[in-house]
Amino acid sequence: MAFEYLCTTLIALFVGAAICFGGYRWFLILLPVWGFFFGFGLGAQSIQILLGVGFLATVSGWLVGFIVGLLFAVLSYLFYMFGVLMLAGSLGYALGVGFMGLLGFDPGIITWLVGIVIAAILVVATFYFDLARYAIVGATAVGGAGLIVITFMYGPGGVALARLLENPVRAALNDSFWWTLLFLILAIGGIVVQVITTRRIPLEPYPDRV
User: Where are the domains of the chain?
Assistant: First the structure.
């Protein structure tokens, strides 16, 4: 059992590091997967806020999360630009909700609205100013950093998965100063490494996709 736990922990850390420091290189593969998990978390959180229940505490939360996640995954695969803008939105939502948690706000309608507003702002900015490259780098660096920190904090099991789906940034920022510092170092480091190493890698959609 200890060996299995060690293996799953190492795998989770490896995946987190690969996303954090190399997500731009793998973003076409990541798009549908990212779309599902972001859509699942967003749908389940919306039910949590609207019904005033715990995260994934009801069947409706699971059902809506699965439907939204599946929809985001399919659209991310079929429509390249949707996937890019979804990544930008996921980054804005994670940062908005995480920042509210850092200020001491519990999950609720205000926190949810702040996340939605910042997500919308980043989506519009990414589209209008053609910031797709930076949206991909930022989202993958932040998401990978969140996965690494959550794995260290809670292990790769169900608790970590639930917190990852709910919001990796909020979980990383809401525990202690040192975990927050580690998250920030990893996220900033991931952004710097990706920007430096992917300057000559063009953005190209899937073949035969729009």
Answer: 22-197
